[in-house]
Every structure is written in structure tokens, then in C-alpha cells.
Design goal:
Blueprint: H1 2-22, H2 47-76
Helix pairs in contact: 1-2
Length: 77
Amino acid sequence: MTLFLQIMLIVLSVLLVLLVLLHRAKGGGLSSLFGGGMQSSLAGSSVAEKNLDRMTLFVIALWVICIIGIGLLIKLG
């Protein structure tokens, strides 16, 4: 069970990084250093962005559950 949760944690971590990188930059931040600040900001968000937000939150929830599960298995084992 621990091995399964560790593999899931690695897969979810990589997926989470990819999902976060897919988000459009909304502030100046580091993205403006690489030319991201030049884009025009459109008012409102599209359906694709909302779905991307939902998928990101779902993966975050699974990631947290895996971490809690691994922590409990380590504590009990």
C-alpha cells in the first residue's frame, strides 16, 4: 500500500506541476521577466480556464490525501 501511495504521489506531483504551468499568468510576477507581461489581459475567464482550475484543485486534493495516507502508514508502521 505504501508503494502504491508513493507512486501515486510522484505521478500526481508531476501532473500538478504541469497543470500549474498551463495556467495563464494573471500578475506581473516572474512571467513578466520572460515576456509574459506583454500579453493583453482579457476580462473574465473562459470555460477552459475554469475546467483547468477544477482539475488542478482535484489533483491537489488527491495529492493531499496521498500525503496524509503515507504519513499515517509511516506512523502506524
